[in-house]
């Protein structure tokens, strides 16, 4: 029981510091967690944290929100999504910094990972229009995948749909994901 407790405490400390967490299971079944995955091993991102600039970007959020309001409204209308939800996700992901980059390589307003960007045809993740369009389409697909369950769609946006499915269509037990869902839902209700 002690190793599990130590791993849990370590993960909690790392996520407070703002690092992405990766998991690797070796052929014998041993599980490893790290914020610096080694090349050549099949590490999976399990916890994605905010960009390092997030706290700084909060200072400019109001102005940037106004700057991108029309873009968000356009993407919401195009994909029949609630603009309030898009704003809540963007605020939680990047504080409206179109140049935000996480330590795991998520980029832009909606913090698209390279695979997600490719999946939705986003060729330039730093292009705000492409980024918001791709992130909106991903969120819409998550809502469809989880039968319009907003909580599960938001959890999937943070941890990946595979993690939500792995835990029998529930919010994964990762502290970062649970905090993220609560944060996005509070922002959504507030708007």
Automatic annotation (TrEMBL):
Annotated TM spans: none
Q: Where is the DUF4124 domain?
A: 12-42
The entry's protein name is Lytic transglycosylase domain-containing protein
Which family does the record assign? Belongs to the transglycosylase Slt family.
Q: Name one Pfam family in it.
A: SLT
Annotated PROSITE patterns:
TRANSGLYCOSYLASE
Task: Show where the Transglycosylase SLT domain sits.
Answer: 71-171
Highest taxon listed in the record's lineage: Bacteria
